[in-house]
Amino acid sequence: MTADLSSIKAQIRAMSNKTVANGCTEAEAMTAIHLVGKLLQKYNLSMDEVQLRDEKCDTLQIHTGSKHKDGLYYAASAIADFCDCKVWINRSRINGLSYSFFGQESDRLMVRYLFDIIKSALDTELASYKLTDEYLSCHFRGVSKRGASSSFGIGMGRRISQRLYDIMRSNKAEGNGNNALVVLKSQLVTEAYAALQLKLKKGYSNTTVMDGHSYHKGAAAADRVNLNRPVNGPTNSVLAIGSR
């Protein structure tokens, strides 16, 4: 790996640590998130086959600290597929839900970037929705506020998932990226994942949308989330290796 790419990677790691949990303001954290996106664009577009093979696969664990499924639960698979990663979800009575994304480092960094963007959007949009008359009057529709919030999150998460898959299909149809590198990356990740020999159980979700009105409001809010830059930048070639 060239010194330039190593430097970019170091900057990505540093920016990824600038979070509210680590003492940054929300504005500082969002600025860092967008800078990470730009650096990821530069990094991925500079990779060749040799550097791709040198990328090691590992697991990124993201702990939510919550026992409840929010919109991210319904977008996790799409995030993983978009970033050429594998994903599985762990449930703990003590620590709640956590997400494990397995893939190459540049893709794990992209997962972290997307996860933070979507998480921030979910929190912001739900907080705004809770101030609306539609939410405050949900009991007139026979729905609790918890049911309305849950339905909003499901709608937003599922719509974000759909949008990510739409971007992938568009990139594939337009022939963006180096197809040989796309295939190679998929093979490398699949082989490394198989070597883990994980024994995962298939999960069954008993998700119930309690409030159709809130669900559709969440879906509409998902359309306001900026997934186009730097994920699918102005030249439609950003992160081309991972955008199948």
Explain the overall architecture.
By secondary structure, this protein is mostly helical. The chain has 2 domains: 1-46; 47-199 and 207-222, no CATH class. 57% of the residues lie in helices and 9% in strands. It has 9 helices and 3 strands, in the order H-H-H-E-H-E-E-H-H-H-H-H. The longest helix is centred in the middle third of the chain and has 30 residues, at 145-174.
Give short descriptive properties of this protein.
9 helices; 57% helix; 3-stranded antiparallel β-sheet; 2 domains; 244 residues; globular
What helical percentage do the residues reach?
55-70%
Any idea what the shape is?
A: globular
**N-to-C SSE string, H for helix and E for strand:** HHHEHEEHHHHH
Biggest sheet layout? 3 strands, antiparallel
Strands side by side in the biggest sheet = 1-3-2
Number of E strands: 3
Based on CA atoms alone, the radius of gyration comes out at 19 Å
Low-confidence stretches: 229-244
Q: State the end-to-end distance.
A: 24 Å
Strand content: 5-15%
Counted up, domains total 2
Helical stretch tally: 9
Give the helix/strand layout.
Blueprint: H1 3-16, H2 26-44, H3 49-54, E1 57-63, H4 71-82, E2 86-92, E3 96-104, H5 105-129, H6 133-136, H7 145-174, H8 179-196, H9 212-222
Antiparallel strand pairs: 1-3, 2-3
Please outline what is shown here.
This protein has 244 residues and is mostly helical. The chain contains nine helices and three strands.
